[in-house]
């Protein structure tokens, strides 16, 4: 029988996907990195990846979805079984490369074992919005700012960097780096005083995946808390690349935006 | 007689350049934006730029150096004289474009009046270091980080954005945006806890001009305070593009780096 495996990391996304997975899915977690999903999990280690992949096959798994953040574990040479040891060069390259390289390696290993790797959008399509304004009103200046922000984030993404920027009236107030979106929004809140008067009244948060990124893994995500932080930073709205962002709890996110007077715009790339 | 005019804005740079200008230079400042230079200044407004340029010619000025930060003034249509009014389309385009566009317009107007526009390096060559390590030791990891940071800053510069980044062991901890270098270093200090253990011990600040930027104006600058902030952020050193950065008070900056154990590396582009 065809089953699906959820390879789950930290954050709300794995739990939110469960509804779309049916009763009979397999939950797998990296050892020492539990997820929020309330179900018994298979624990796996990269040093024993081959036995783990084989085990998934014997469980009848045919499709795999990866969701949630995983930290790169330190590999312990003593724990490798013989067959996984043959993968060491690829595993090491993945661990030392950027996030994209690491995820590409993971995906290709699963595919070599015959699994179909699917994205969150095929489990829960409503979580990955297509083009459209979900709430609020977008001004021409917002549209110009979104265009500029999209160019900035694409330039950063080409360097395997952050997936976000804050732009107000043509000025870039904050850029996303390792500390993430929340840290960037707090920076924008602290420093919005440097904006000249007309820009200070508006501004937006823009999020997008990296250009060329595999859309099945590691899409940026926002939720009601992101809306609250954007509002605190004095922003007028949130814009993202349509089809390239996960909306955690769609109804609550839209309600939060409506309550704060923010627009939410899923923008055509 | 050939004289030089210093068009001075805010910050320490104009004052530091004075030593290289001799006794008989002309000081000019935008009305309402005084500099730190202790000398009587010609005040000018963009609405009367043509009479100002003519006046510089009658003063025997042949060379011009621009230094220090100037805010873009709001233009008052009632103040234009007839000849400057003919420049309004160019002035408005400059005011509304990015910093580079605005400075390019300024430079070309001065050149059309026959002035030679020179950079700080021709006034005070010791302030614009060429290639070399000025103090401290650069590790191979630092060199790799500097290479990555240079690529990041070049990608940002292509979007007319900030001139700095903080990188540690291949991870980008902070990116410069409108609030500037000091705000970025404070962000790096607050968030360096997100770095994994080996990266947390080092890291560097990288500064460079935008690709294609006119090196005669608006070069990034660092000084002893930048060193102090980099040290507080836990960084191991500061790297910049050789020939593309102004070292404010060279001796004090090197002394501050030595005292904090930071390296200073003027890196070949």
Give a topology summary.
The structure is a homodimer of 269-residue chains.
Chain A: E1 3-8, H1 13-17, E2 26-30, E3 42-44, H2 49-58, E4 61-67, H3 82-85, H4 88-96, H5 99-112, E5 116-118, H6 120-123, E6 132-135, H7 140-157, E7 164-168, E8 171-175, H8 181-191, H9 197-200, E9 204-207, E10 221-222, H10 224-232, E11 237-241, E12 246-247, H11 250-260, E13 263-267
Parallel strand pairs in A: 1-2, 1-4, 2-3, 4-5, 9-11, 10-12, 11-13
Antiparallel strand pairs in A: 6-13, 7-8, 7-9
Helix pairs in contact in A: 4-5, 8-10, 10-11
Offer a few descriptive terms.
homodimer, 269 residues, alpha/beta, 6-stranded mixed beta sheet, 5-stranded parallel beta sheet, 37% helix
Could you walk me through the main structural features you see in this protein, from its secondary elements to its overall organization?
The structure is a homodimer of 269-residue chains. Chain A has 269 residues and is α/β, with parallel strands linked by helices. Helix content of chain A is 37%, strand content 21%. Chain A is built from 11 helices and 13 strands. In chain A, the strands form 3 sheets. A 6-stranded mixed beta sheet of chain A has the order 6-13-11-9-7-8, with helices on both faces. A 5-stranded parallel beta sheet of chain A has the order 3-2-1-4-5. In chain A, strand 7 and strand 8 form a beta hairpin. The first copy, chain A, is elongated and about 65 Å long. The first copy, chain A, starts with a strand and ends with a strand. Chains A and B meet through helix 7, strand 8 and helix 8 of A and helix 7, strand 8 and helix 8 of B.
